[in-house]
Amino acid sequence: QVQLVESGGGSVQAGGSLRLSCAASRAGYSRLCMGWFRQAPGKVREGVATIGSDDNTSYADSVKGRFTISKDSAKNTLYLQMNSLEPEDTAMYYCAAFSLTTCGLSAAFAYWGQGTQVTVSS
Q1: Nearest Cα to 86, choosing from 11, 1, 16?
Q2: Separation of alpha carbons 63 and 23, rounded Å
Q3: Burial of 33 (0-12, 13-18, 19+ CB in 10 A)
Q4: In this structure, how many other beta carbons lie within 10 angstroms of the beta carbon of residue 95?
Q5: Most buried among 23, 53, 82, 85, by the most CB within 10 A?
Q6: How far apart are CA 40 and CA 52, in angstroms?
Q7: Which residues, including other chains, have CB under 8 Å from residue 77's CB and lie 6 or more apart?
């Protein structure tokens, strides 16, 4: 069992930046497949970015070139750097760890955080 705690969300104007962090309660999980997902009100949850044990990354088309996923295994922490934010990025962002299937945006993950809210105003 591992707990994931997200932080770094907030309110920002369009064009601004935020960096989300996800701290894992146990060592080792950050070396596995981890990812960021988001869910806006009235919409289904969607994959934003994933990073595998080999550091291979995948991004949703809507965030390519603007968001960067990374991890610090020594700190058991996953990050999501979000630049050039748009109002369409407004959502609750969730961290996930330990994919049960092939690492990627469609993977099924075993562990989820509680989420951190990101609000982008125009």
Answers
A1: 16
A2: 22
A3: buried
A4: 28
A5: 82
A6: 25
A7: 21, 22, 23, 24, 30, 71
Asked whether the CA dihedral 94, 45, 104, 20 is positive or negative, the reply is negative
Q: What pLDDT is stored for residue 30 in this prediction? A: 63
Cα four-point dihedral sign 16, 62, 117, 57: negative
* Long-range Cβ pairs for the range 52-58 (8 Å, 24+): 52/103, 53/103, 56/103, 58/103, 58/104, 58/105
The whole-angstrom separation of Cα 75 and Cα 24 is 9
Q: How far apart are CA 105 and CA 49, in angstroms?
A: 7
Structure tokens at 6: 């997200």
pLDDT of residue 18: 98
pLDDT tens digits, residue range 103-118?
999 999 999 999 999 9
Task: Give strand pairing partners of 80.
Answer: 20, 69
Most confident of 53-57, 69-73, 87-91: 87-91
